[in-house]
């Protein structure tokens, strides 16, 4: 082929061409609140699996849940047998350990993927995970990467997972010493919150999950913060009605933010719902996950609130109310590892700032408070003031 004299060469023309792709994908999934999910007369699970015909479901269960609910596996089998015109149980439920350990070892992701393969779970079948936030994160990651994504049913069994982690669109495991380093954005098919699972939680898991309720109330709903403030005693005393409201409102606020923020898959550099989390994630690692996520978030909220107070952003009265609610709910505001200072690039707490920035990329963006219900974003934090904040929290803790 000869290019006419004076015309651009084929290679030149090629290098000036482009194709602009532009499309939207609509996501929709329900977060359903119920009790006795696996009672054969409860049709919530059956109805959550849409479409005609029978649907195969691979069930993964948190070992800790089976210990507190010894009839769970049997109940799952009875439920599927009673609804066998619509549901098919793909083998016996698979029981795996719960807790953060399951996000640390790749063998658990591989085990779930092997089960998906062995039972022929395709993109019109389902994986249902029953358990706390860690196993839900891990199984969600495994399901999202098998066949480029199989349908996921989440049945969260802790306060933290029912009001926060399981209602969102993220799945992840830890790697390279960093929390949630590997993961996907893959919305679930449905989230089924059974209040009865909360009744057998250990005290730490009952109260720990409320830190996320405090967080989202501080960011988005001053009236909800007042509810937590006024009902702290009832919540700490395991009042189920108070907890049901706290879980529902917290989940509702999280879902609204994810759907309406304009950045559900976190393509920007701002992550408002991770208020208090830059230190929390690092504290979990520093304690080798002896400090649970909800407890670490409470300390992170206390730290960032104290910092905002010391730099003149947050009124003293609001700062005192925030610490008062955290302590009233039985949540920690200081742990010794908070003094593991290091620097922004070493292994101490301050390294959490750099890891937080790296997780999203771009400019460091941390959410602080100018008041209850009045979040503001900052792009730098004074390390000396952070050290002063740690010392103030330590004094408050040791002076009790």
Automatic annotation (TrEMBL):
At the top level, the lineage of the source is: Bacteria
Q: Does the keyword tRNA processing apply?
A: no
3-dehydroquinate synthase C-terminal domain span: 209-341
The protein's required cofactors: NAD(+)
Where does the 3-dehydroquinate synthase N-terminal domain lie? 94-206
Keyword NAD applies: yes
Keywords (alphabetical) are: Amino-acid biosynthesis, Aromatic amino acid biosynthesis, Lyase, NAD
Alphabetized InterPro entries for the sequence: Dehydroquinate_synthase, DHQS/DOIS_N, DHQS_C
Descriptive protein name: 3-dehydroquinate synthase
Q: Which organism is it from?
A: Deinococcus malanensis
Its organism's taxonomic lineage begins at:
Bacteria, Thermotogati, Deinococcota, Deinococci, Deinococcales
Gene that this sequence comes from? aroB
């Amino acid at each position: 082929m000869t290019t006419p004299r004076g015309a651009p060469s084929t290679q030149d023309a090629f290098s000036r061409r482009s194709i602009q792709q532009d499309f939207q994908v609509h996501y929709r999934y329900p977060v359903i609140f119920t009790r006795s999910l696996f009672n054969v007369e409860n049709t919530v699970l059956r109805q959550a699996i849409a479409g005609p015909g029978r649907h195969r479901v691979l069930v993964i269960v948190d070992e800790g849940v089976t210990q507190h609910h010894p009839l769970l596996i049997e109940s799952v089998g009875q439920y599927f047998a009673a609804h066998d015109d619509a549901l098919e149980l793909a083998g016996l439920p698979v029981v795996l350990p719960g807790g953060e350990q399951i996000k640390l070892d790749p063998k658990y992701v591989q085990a779930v993927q092997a089960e998906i393969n062995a039972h022929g779970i395709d993109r019109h079948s389902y994986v249902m995970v029953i358990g706390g936030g860690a196993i839900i994160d891990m199984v969600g990651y495994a399901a999202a990467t098998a066949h480029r994504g199989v349908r996921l049913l989440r049945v969260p069994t802790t306060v933290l997972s029912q009001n926060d982690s399981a209602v969102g669109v993220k799945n992840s495991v830890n790697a390279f010493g960093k929390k949630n380093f590997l993961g996907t954005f893959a919305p679930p098919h449905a989230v089924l919150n059974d209040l009865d699972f909360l009744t057998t939680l250990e005290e730490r898991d009952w109260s720990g999950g409320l830190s996320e309720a405090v967080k989202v109330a501080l960011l988005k709903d001053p009236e909800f913060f007042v509810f937590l403030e006024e009902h702290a005693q009832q919540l700490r005393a395991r009042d189920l009605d108070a907890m049901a409201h706290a879980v529902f409102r917290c989940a509702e606020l999280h879902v609204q933010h994810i759907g309406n923020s304009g950045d559900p898959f976190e393509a920007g550099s701002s992550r408002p719902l991770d208020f208090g989390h830059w230190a929390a994630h690092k504290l979990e690692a520093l304690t080798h996950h002896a400090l649970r996520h909800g407890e670490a978030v409470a300390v992170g909220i206390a730290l960032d609130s104290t910092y905002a107070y010391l730099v003149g952003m947050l009124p003293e009265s609001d700062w005192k109310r925030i610490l008062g609610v955290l302590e009233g709910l039985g949540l920690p505001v200081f742990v010794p590892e908070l003094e593991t200072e290091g620097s922004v690039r070493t292994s101490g707490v301050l390294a959490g700032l750099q890891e937080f920035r790296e997780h999203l990329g771009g400019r460091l963006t941390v959410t602080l408070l100018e008041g209850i219900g009045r979040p503001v974003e900052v792009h730098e934090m004074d390390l000396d003031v952070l050290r002063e904040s740690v010392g103030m929290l330590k004094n408050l803790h040791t002076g009790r």
